[in-house]
Specification:
By secondary structure, the protein is mainly alpha-helical. Helices cover about 60% and strands about 0% of the residues. The protein has helices at about 5-15, 20-25, 25-35, 50-55, 65-80, 80-90, 110-135, 170-180, 185-210. The two termini are about 15 Å apart. About 30% of the residues are buried. The model has no long low-confidence stretch (mean pLDDT about 95). Zinc ion (ZN) binds near residues 38, 61 and 128.
């Protein structure tokens, strides 16, 4: 899956649950960012090629690391509103949204908020692993197994349904995004339809056009 697809999968998953209505759009933003975090192990390329070969798709792409980093990101964002600050800075260069966006509903921090932010961020990070399990191989490349139980077990998992480079799911997410722009009041419904369309696409692509 591309970074865009990972982020959109998590954002749509969050919007489909209506959490943004009760807690503000900040919760969807943290889901989108958290869904990108497992790819941090790709940064090992800055160290050396050997380190990258050893670490990429291993150190960040396992259940323990993905969930832990997700929880940490959720707690930090809820406490310090990191993405809120980034969003407000970004807003200066962006056109006004079609209707006012409520970033945070709560005025004060609560235990429920800390719990929710960490659960949503962890679930988003884990959705990245699910995506990488299903989107693999193609273009002459071998399927790339994920060592989900690393460092406790070297066993690899992969269930290739959609090859790398396939743009089908990107187009579905993009269509969903434009539909949300046209119908801001129907964001939840559009997110649900988008996720169903993505699931159907993966199934049809995997079983009928493998
Ligand atoms: Zn990945």
């Amino acid at each position: 899956m591309s970074p865009f697809e990972h982020a959109m999968l998590a954002v749509n998953g969050c919007l489909a649950t209506r959490l943004q209505e009760k807690w503000g759009w900040s919760i969807a933003a943290v889901a989108g960012v958290s869904a990108l975090t497992p790819d941090w192990d790709g940064l090992t390329l800055l160290g050396s090629g050997a380190l990258f070969a050893q670490a990429h798709r291993v150190w960040g792409h396992n259940l323990v690391a993905a969930a832990s980093i997700g929880v940490l990101l959720g707690l930090i964002d809820y406490r310090f509103d990191v993405l809120g600050h980034c969003g407000r800075r970004l807003r200066r260069w962006l056109p006004d949204p079609p209707r006012p966006v409520q970033w945070r509903v709560e005025q004060h921090r609560s235990v429920r908020g800390y719990l929710l932010w960490s659960i949503v961020a962890a679930a988003a990070a884990l959705s990245h692993l699910a995506g990488d399990l299903l989107f693999s191989g193609g273009m002459g490349l071998a399927d790339w197994e994920l060592q989900l139980a690393w460092p406790f077990s070297p066993r690899g998992w992969v269930y290739p349904m959609v090859p790398w480079g396939d743009v089908g799911v990107t187009l579905v997410f993009a269509a969903g995004m434009f539909a949300m722009l046209r119908r801001p009041a129907g964001v939840t419904q559009v997110a649900r339809v988008t996720l169903i369309a993505v699931a159907l696409y993966v199934l049809v692509r995997g079983f009928c056009f493998a």
